[in-house]
Amino acid sequence: MKVVSVKNVSKFYGQKQVLDNVSFDIEEKEIFGLLGSNGAGKSTITSIILGLEKQSSGNVVLFEGQKKNLKKRIALVPQSTAFYKDFSVEKNLRFFASVCGLKSKQIKPRVKFLMSWLSLEPFKDVKAGHLSGGYQRLLNIACSLVHDPELIFFDEPTVGLDPKMRQMFWLKIQDLKAAGKTIIITTHYMDEAEKLCTKLALMKNGKMLVIGKPRELISQYGGIKVMIFNITGGVKKEDIQKIRTVLNQFTVISRDELLFIPFEQEHTFEKVIAVTEWLMKKGYNISSSITKEPNLEDVFLNITGEGMKQQE
Amino acid sequence: MKLFDIIWKEISLIKAQKIAIALIFLYPFIVVGLLGSAFTGVDISRMNQIKIGFVNNLNFESEIVDSLVTSYSNLSITQYDNEDLLRAGLYNKQVISGVILRGDAPNKQLKVDLLYDNSNLLSSRFFMEIAKALIQKTTSDYAQKNLGRIWTTIKAFGSNIDEEIRNVEDFKSQLSSAELALDDLELKLNAVEYKEGDVNSVRASFNKFKSEYESLKGPLAQNKETLKKLPGQIDEASVLISSIVKNLEYFDSVLLQDSDKNLLNEQISHLNSINSKMSKWKSMSLQLITITEKISDETSEINKSFSKVDAIFEKATLGARSIEEVKELIASARESKITIESKLDSSSALLSKFSKELVEFSKIDPKVLAQPVIFYEGKIYNVDPFGILVSNALVVVLILTCMLLTSIIFIMEKTENVTLRLELSPTSKFILFLGKIIGQLVIALIEAGIIFVVAFAKIPLPFSILGVTHLGFGLVTSANLFELFLAVVLVSLTFICLGLFIASLVKNQSTAILTSLLVIVPMLFLSGIVLPLEFMEPTMQLVSSILPMTLANNLLIGLIIKGLTISQLWFEAGLLLFYSLLSFGVVFFKTKL
Predict the structure, then answer these.
(1) ipTM score assigned to the predicted complex
(2) Which residues in chain A are contacts of B426 at CB distance < 8 A?
(3) Contact at 8 Å (CB) between B216 and B292?
(4) A55 and A101 inside one domain
(5) Are A96 and A122 in the same domain?
(6) Are residues A237 and A216 part of one domain?
(7) How far is B512 from chain A (nearest CA, A)?
(8) How does pLDDT run across B25-69, given as a tens digit for each residue?
């Protein structure tokens, strides 16, 4: 079932067009990622899908047109926390459960489950404002999921979290997927999108650039691997020229003490050995080397001509 | 259940702010307690903290000054030596208003300069009016005394005037009598009136007589000797006649015939008659001789009398003239009498009128002039003035808490991003707002309840705390409790909706507070709570009359003080409801929540 169907949606704020003929579909139980830099239109399309804003043109259909109890079936986990800081964890959850339509009998077990699932049990009587950032985010998720929605929007869910918390978040999202939820994630983090999403859409300036599975996008648009050598003192220009000539690769770049050598997919290991030996023979001190596989960042870079991180 | 949760959420959010809790519970006590303690039993006669200064610049000794100092023990009156010291006293607030007495003489108007500290709009003028009333009372007493003295004099004068009127009447009657006398005199004069011409004609006749007399005098003087002889001759003739008679009588005796006797007797009788006549002739001749002698005698009275008669004629002439003059004087006197009489009549009329007016005047009590009006205070509402403070305090507390708390919490929900979650929730916007409003209403009703308990209860304390012997002020009101409850709900609802409206316009709490205060403070000053509405320009009074705070104050005062019903206060209630619905409508349709 198509949980979300967006067809030719455009949005204007006055004269300014923020969405330009965007179309995509999201299947049930998918984790759909919306990638793009600031101002790409991710939040706008999310708001339109959630019903917070109206599109200027186009069509958005949720749950194949089923409109009954629509708000009970969708949820947003906003980027910034959205709960009462002066209420305790449990009180927040109970309140939002109530306004989200849960009956009295349903509230208690649901709240208990969420607190347990998100490890909030120890903090149930603690004022939300007194929680650490990570646990506030968890409470944020809990408040959004209190009514057990089918379609969940995550807006930049792991921004500002430490790696451990990020990992935990990813696990929870995957738990939700396993529970049959359809998830839409907007994120800046390519690794997150790559790790979590079953389908991705790249946006820029209100336009949908590409849409597809992460691996497909990488293989199609990601480009090639790149060897990066960290050489103490850098490499001389003539040596860089030699490497280019030998490898027949004119995209060899040296920047400070880093040497970037793009490799084709085949013969990767042999070429690594050959270049490494040559550089060592020349007396260069190679402090480290890595192989950078093409990723979504590269996909974005290759499609948009600019890096996500550069823009940030 | 959902609605209850939303209501409880609203109350809980307020509860979560410790300061808000303190405000909710302390505020009513503080506001009502302070205001009540400060202003309970406002009574001019007990306001002995009114300090009034005065300077005596009178150029004469006056009992007004003594009255000022001694008569008003419930006010603090201080005398200063000069105006500069009095002004210094005002600047330093040693006195709250000042009076400078100026005057040249006790019989001239006093001039009073009233000084007051006009840096305070309301109370300073109030105290100035008290000082003015004080002076008016003092001078009124003084004037009353003077009027009393004048009245006594007027009364005495009045009785003297009556006597004068009587004297005038007497004089008039005397004039009338004099006129009668004059009439009588005139009549007499008319009786004896003779003119100079008459006198002259008599004189002429007299002169003619005199000349004839003189003309006779000569011959008489000439015949005086002859005349002297006449008596002798008459005597001789008489003797002769007597002898004749005797002879005839003889003849009578001898005659024989009676006819002859008769004839003889007749002749004898004739002769006797002639003889008796001759004696008369003798006396006449003697008289004639005497007259002749007198006429001849220049020294005789007859001759002397001519000069006297001349003199008399002179006098008669003068008399005639005098009579003329007297008659003229009489005529003139008559005219004068008429003139005087008419003037006396008018004077009498004037005096009568004056006397009547004095009588009427004297019926007026001098107190009426000195103090034409005595004021008796009449309150049209039988209520403790503290009741007004309760209404005012309630409005102030409700507007501050309802507007501020509502807007702060609404903004807080926006800043904490909760509104996004609520917007996405399946609960309708209407229920969300309704719960919010009812939650705030509960708080407002708690506050109103506290205020009413403090106002209406009067619980004696077992011991005095800082002079306070009982809790509560024991206010009595005829207000219907249910209507009072409805009014409080309506007022709170209006302020809550206004708070929501303000919150919908701003983005953060500090701006919400500032904006709320920006609305509250002007309304406070224009509502009639701080300053009387009557002080304002008419246009502003009109504006003020439709402000929510004014309407709320009027509604509560109408119920608590005036004993009116909400239906009678339909304008205030209706307009407040309108404001509520309008604000709520704007917020509801404008806000995404």
Answers:
(1) 0.80
(2) 69, 71-72, 99-101, 147
(3) no
(4) yes
(5) yes
(6) no
(7) 19
(8) 776 776 666 556 555 544 444 455 678 888 998 888 877 777 766
